[in-house]
Design a protein that fits this description.
By secondary structure, the protein is an alpha/beta fold. It has one domain: Rossmann fold (3-Layer(aba) Sandwich), CATH 3.40.50. 46% of the residues lie in helices and 17% in strands. It is built from 11 helices and 7 strands. Strand 1, helix 4 and strand 2 form a beta-alpha-beta unit. The longest helix is centred in the C-terminal third of the chain and has 23 residues. The relative contact order is 0.12.
Length: 272
């Protein structure tokens, strides 16, 4: 079919992704796992509160995978992207999945919504592409209800895995370069007309950025690894020994793993 989502993607999006065949194929596969990723996100959110009858916003929705997953759960969902080509793909994909999306063209740095209207805002794979990330963070805080939740992903520029091969252009040492050199690197390696990754903060800067807007971020990676360790230590008879191990492990995870090793940060933040 000429108007199915994958055909539209190849027609509208593929010409805008110069570079290696491998780069395009990875992007294509990742995109069309979006509904599965959305289902996993909903399972994560349900650990904190019910997701039915909530108001969801998907910022920079791309092909709409997360929004489709949210809509299937009878949630009220609004999704937007700055590029209308992606919205055409999202509309076609939603039709294939048997749902209808509320889609619009908009910018994350200037959202056309009233204050405090959403229970949940998803910012997946978006903040690193913004020239004004503080503007988007401020807008997220504005449109969230008090106690509302934000989902955020962001690559860690100093993670060894990202240094060896970044997750946007598959180039070694890309994330360590100054802006002008990164632009030249992308062009020389024929991965694009310019570098479209503008914001690669260190961990403390990212946390502070959201704190300044009244949102406290909590690391999903830290919680998952802490829970796994707690479960593994449950067989120990000595509570003192397990307590010491847990405190040492939390210190290492928080101050070493999260800041230096974790390749992509996944956060759930709550508006205070």
């Amino acid at each position: 079919m000429e108007n199915d989502a994958r055909t539209l993607w190849k027609k509208l999006i593929k010409p805008t992704i110069p570079g290696s065949r491998k780069l395009y194929e990875l992007y294509f596969i990742y995109t069309f796992l979006g509904v599965k990723r959305g289902e996993m996100l909903l399972e994560l959110l349900e650990r904190f509160s019910p997701v039915e009858r909530k108001f969801f916003l998907d910022v920079g929705c791309g092909a709409g995978g997360l929004a489709i997953a949210f809509t299937k759960r009878s949630s009220t969902v609004v999704a937007f992207d700055i590029d209308p080509k992606y919205l055409k793909v999202a509309e076609a994909w939603a039709k294939e999945e048997g749902v209808e999306l509320n889609l619009m063209v908009a910018s994350g740095e200037s959202m056309p919504f009233k204050d405090g209207v959403f229970d949940f805002v998803a910012c997946s794979d978006i903040i690193e592409h913004l020239k004004n990330p503080a503007g988007m963070v401020g807008e997220v805080a504005r449109v969230l209800k008090k106690g509302g939740v934000v989902y955020l992903t962001c690559p860690n520029r100093i993670s060894p895995r990202i240094i060896w091969k970044d997750n946007h252009y598959l180039l070694p040492f890309f994330t360590l370069l100054p802006r002008r050199l990164a632009d030249a690197y992308v062009k020389i390696m024929k991965r694009g007309e310019s570098n479209e990754v503008f914001f690669l903060p260190l961990y403390p800067k990212l946390i502070k950025l959201f704190e300044n807007a009244g949102i406290r971020l909590h690391s999903w990676d830290l919680e998952e690894k802490t829970n796994a360790l707690r479960s593994a230590l449950s067989h120990l008879k000595s509570s003192k020994v397990s307590g010491l191990i847990m405190r040492a492990a939390k210190f290492i995870l928080k101050n070493f793993y999260l800041k230096w090793i974790c390749p992509v940060w996944i956060f759930l933040g709550r508006k205070l």
